[in-house]
Design brief:
Length: 385
């Protein structure tokens, strides 16, 4: 990978910077963290602006509606949007960062044409229906059942921790289509409309008071067989593609944000006197080094993914996810030390970010599971069981 910028890339950066300077002041006020319909409208509105300006799906393949940009242009985009304080993907997380890329890599031409343009245009929101009350780390033991009836599957079961379920139009849903097969072989990956009869959503509140995820109940929901991505009972392989995107590339924009946050923290510490504490300074310095290394790992992962067939990231995603989620928690623990009593107020964005950082070592596969993957698939150690 070449880490210097070509003239074309510098030109791309300059044009993007100028566009951001023009559009960001025109954005409406950000909705409150618990106003989910408002957040959906805000996030889709930003996505629509990106689409109209030709920046949506920058690194997606051209035949999936993207612009086929180079990995470097993609990273420049993340750097510049973050530097300018532009909105992040928000409610579009699943659609843009893992359901969409999965459909781009695994879907038929009809499926790509149906589902990808509305994600890029900012018309439709997706959620992820993978985890179940008894199937989290051991996802392949999922029990939501899909029975074939003519051209439909009839689906019953329940999903849990479904982020953005209340405001989603579509769900990437894992179902068991062959209960007699070994557990990894009887699963299929479906796109389910969230307004289908039989779908009900019960919001779950986090410790910060926000209902950002939900339990989703499915009672004889009919989903066309045509909505299946990949072959029947081959859904585990498709799931691995989704999880590779989720762990490998979905969080890269956040690394840029964390580096900016770290700078902000150092400035706050200088202003409020906490900077005089050498232990705190050492901690901030170590985090600076850690996020610098994570950014390099990000560049490597993105570059590797965009060179691979279908743009699917490799197991390096588990190394990144493991290191990033712990570094993020340490960043916000350090923020609490810098801010003192201020960090206890739920009115402070810092506090909410700190609370949400606790979930990072659980969501998208726990740290223990990432360690198992690194041990078995990268280091070649024997399987635990
Ligand atoms: C903020 C957030 C958002 C989420 N959003 C979604 C979403 O949109 N859609 C969705 O489908 N899911 C979502 N999840 C669910 C998430 O994927 C699961 O919580 C996660 O996979 C862990 O599953 P579990 O909660 O059932 O824990 P369990 O699997 O019950 O694990 C409990 C503990 O046991 C450990 N453990 C389990 N198995 C092993 C093993 N083999 N080796 C070592 N340790 C092990 C785990 O590491 C963990 O510490 C979200 C979770 C969070 C926190």
């Amino acid at each position: 990978m070449d880490l210097t910028y070509t003239e074309e890339e510098q030109d791309f950066r300059a044009r993007l910077r100028a566009w951001l300077a023009k559009v960001l002041p025109e954005l409406p006020a950000k909705p409150s963290p618990d106003d989910w319909p408002g957040r959906r409208a805000y996030d889709l509105g930003w996505q629509r602006r990106l689409y109209e300006a030709g920046y949506a799906g920058l690194h997606w393949p051209v035949d999936a509606g993207g612009r086929g940009a180079t990995p470097t242009q993609h990273l420049i985009f993340l750097e510049e949007t973050e530097r300018a304080g532009a909105p992040y993907v928000g409610a579009n997380f699943v659609g843009l960062l893992h359901a969409g890329p999965t459909i781009a890599a695994e879907g038929t031409a009809e499926q790509r044409a149906r589902w990808l343009p509305p994600v890029l245009r900012g018309d439709e929101v997706w959620c992820q229906g993978f985890s179940e009350p008894d199937a989290g780390s051991d996802l392949a033991s999922l029990r939501t059942r899909a029975v074939r009836d003519g051209d439909d599957y009839v689906i019953s079961g329940s999903k849990i921790w479904t982020s953005h379920a209340e405001v989603a139009d579509w769900c990437e849903l894992l179902v068991r289509t062959d209960p007699g097969a070994p557990k990894h072989r009887g699963i299929s990956w479906l796109a389910m409309p969230m307004d289908a009869p039989g779908v009900s959503v019960r919001p779950l509140r986090t410790l910060a008071g926000s209902a950002e995820f939900a339990q989703v109940f499915l009672d004889e929901v009919r989903v066309p067989v045509a909505n299946r991505v990949g072959a029947e009972n081959d859904g585990w392989r498709v799931t691995m593609v989704t999880l590779s995107f989720e762990r490998g590339t979905a969080f890269v924009g956040e690394v840029v944000a964390c580096r900016r946050t770290l700078g902000e923290l150092a400035r706050t510490a200088k202003a409020n006197g906490r900077w005089d504490d050498p232990v705190l300074r050492r901690r901030l310095g170590r985090l600076y080094g850690e996020f610098g290394a994570l950014w390099r790992l990000t560049q490597w992962n993105v570059s590797e993914a965009e060179r691979s067939a279908g743009g699917v990231p490799g197991t390096g995603g588990s190394v990144f996810k493991l290191a990033y989620s712990h570094a993020r928690q340490e960043l916000y623990d350090t923020a609490a030390e810098v801010l003192g009593a201020r960090s206890l107020s739920l009115e402070e964005e810092w506090t909410l970010d700190r609370l949400s950082s606790l979930s990072y070592t659980i969501a998208a596969g726990t740290s223990q599971i990432q360690r198992n993957i690194v041990a078995e698939r990268i280091l070649g150690l024997p399987k635990g069981r």
